[in-house]
Amino acid sequence: MASNFSSVPILDYSLASDPARKPEFLAQLRHALINVGFLYLANPPVAREDIDAVIAYAPRLFDLPQNTKDRIRMANSEHFLGYSRLGAEITKGQTDQREQYDFATPYEARWKPGEPEYLRLWGPSQWPDEELLPGFKDTFLRYLAQTEKLSYEFIGLLAEAFGLPREIMRGFYETDGPTPHRAKVVKYPPLDDLASNQGVGPHFDGGFLTFLLQASPHPGLQVQNLSGQWIDAPPIPGTFVVNIGKALETVTQGLARATSHRVLSPPKGSTPRYSIPFFQNIAQRISVKDIQLEFPPEILQLKEKRGEVGTTDSVNYTEYGLLPTGQVNLIGRVKSHPDVAERHYPDLFKQFFPHGLPAQGSAY
Ligand SMILES: O=C(O)CCC(=O)C(=O)O
Ligand SMILES: [Fe+2]
């Protein structure tokens, strides 16, 4: 019988460090990974004062004068890092109604001519001037470092929940150098003057795990269940929303589900919604088919019990079976930010946009 879900489960991270209650946590985690693909994580090991501080900074980032935001626009960056104006991003061919900054964990650009083009994707972030937003960069980096650490601890717990050794996933990210991760600070304006209510259109996340901080009390995030219905995932203070990306779904042979999700714009007259997603990545040169995980048969059976996953409204990621992760990432960025691609990756731009820049979808 197909299992389905009508709400997103809440897991308490403090159980994971209590030996007596860890089995309970792992059982809940296994259920959430296999049957839902989303969960709330209460009591995450990220300092509350840093969480509160990044939440407080979010509106201030967008209240900066337009010309100072544009100075660090994404189009400047071959790493697709920086500021994107409202309406600059495309999901599934439609314009998203959100304004955002993309930042990454610290990373020195390493690409050299002759190496694969996708290695150019990662490099330093563009930060707002310190005088304009004192303390933001340091606070955000501290937040990123803690969230990154949590993401690796969580991958260890995921392995345990699936009956594997805790360290088995390391091969995906411990390679010749650090694996960079991306985060965004996002503002969804209310519907008043928008062309549509697509805050962000239906999609899967690409990488391993996403840790989403809902940074204002607005609902709007929705998750698609197995029969295609949209289920609300409203903010719960003090939690992260954790979900699975397509790379992790692929390496776990579909045990951990990547679940389609979207954000609807806040209603007319409302204040803006803010959110801060962190996207855990894996090493760029690795193809997900390079490492085969052997799951115990009784775990694989749990997937059969789930039944067929119904249709989703999201784009798919069939490339993961074929290409290095870095190339899959780069293609995703090109499709989402064609104007940045046109400037820095002209060949890929022509391949995906043979008729030129779409009417919408220009970061600048
Ligand atoms: O803003 C949110 O709540 C979700 C954003 C999201 O799904 C994404 O950026 O991938
Ligand atoms: Fe997402």
TrEMBL record:
GO MF annotations in UniProt: metal ion binding; oxidoreductase activity
Entry keyword annotation includes Metal-binding: yes
Domain Fe2OG dioxygenase: 179-282
InterPro entries recorded: DIOX_N, IPNS-like_FE2OG_OXY, IPNS-like_sf, Oxoglu/Fe-dep_dioxygenase_dom
Keyword line: Iron, Metal-binding, Oxidoreductase
Keyword Iron: yes
Cited SUPFAM superfamilies: Clavaminate synthase-like
Coiled coil: none
One Pfam entry name: 2OG-FeII_Oxy
Record-linked Gene3D superfamilies: B-lactam Antibiotic, Isopenicillin N Synthase, Chain (2.60.120.330)
Family: Belongs to the iron/ascorbate-dependent oxidoreductase family.
Name the record gives this protein: Fe2OG dioxygenase domain-containing protein
Organism: Fomitopsis schrenkii
